[in-house]
Specification:
This protein is mainly β. It contains 2 helices and 11 strands; from the N terminus they run H-E-E-E-E-E-E-E-H-E-E-E-E.
Length: 205
Amino acid sequence: MRLITLAVLLAVSTGCVNFKGSFTANRNLKLKHTTVFGNEKNKNVPAGTYQAEVKFSSDDKIKLTLERGGDDIEVKMKLPSNRQFPGNSGPINLPASRTGQNYDIEGFIDTQVSRSRVTRTVETCSYTRNERRCSKVCNGNRSCRTVCDTVPVTVYGRRDVEFRYDYTNRDLELTVLIPNGGQVGRYRGTDRESNKVYLYKGRCY
């Protein structure tokens, strides 16, 4: 179930990548889980179909969450950091002898990047400026004086902008295999990302 290794490399090049999809175990599986102390233990995954989410915290730490009927199975994996995976699209080959898992993983990732048209419009904006403010301060003897100070003030306005959206769609398919044997599981997941890219920002007024 080392399917997540792929997401790790993507994280390095594109930022946070979370694959969401489904995993089907054709039989009861045992996945190796790495504890916070670095120890390993097997976690049982009963046969069946699960909603599956893959997250990572670094280039060698991954968390797989399987959910079915309200019960979650979390498997945290420590991956070999020197492994090479496709940064965008390409095949995946993760033999058990290299990953330390109980199964071989084979698969493919397909990444498609597109852009929207450029939009020109007016948006709300804000900026901070310093203003001199004065107030009257009185003491207990009823004598008063005027005290002035410079304070930051937030000013709201509008400005002309030009922007587009960049879309990144990633599809991941993985097959879980017994070493030198048949298929025992299959994962399909997607990650959809959109970023608003400003090409021009006018003065806020």
